[in-house]
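Team,

Forwarding the record for the chain on the shared tracking sheet. I've put the sequence and predicted structure together so nobody has to dig through attachments.
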Amino acid sequence: MDIITPVVLDGYAPRKDGSFSIRFVTQEQTPEQVANIHSSLGAYGFLVFKKEAPLSKEEMQMIADVDLPDQEKKTQSQRLRNVLFLLFKKDPQGFRTFDEFYKYRTEKIIDALKKQLDEVDI
């Protein structure tokens, strides 16, 4: 379900990769609205923020007509890195930094795939 609610732009923070984290504050929400917000965590979508005046019917239709492009989803390598990061956070396995952990684990994956190549007759 979409989230459509009046908000106040509360702040933003730049991130290492050049993207931004943007923070909004809403008015009080009903339990149903809170559940909808919670169920949307991690979802890909579009944010429209218009100062002052409410959205016109034409603007609402323009938003409704926007398609989510598939290319905006995470790449397989981004997904793998994110999963390895979560694994590192749960159990660093003696590694001091994520970079050390990442290099070790990806080398293990590469070595396993190379071993499979050696076993396959081409």
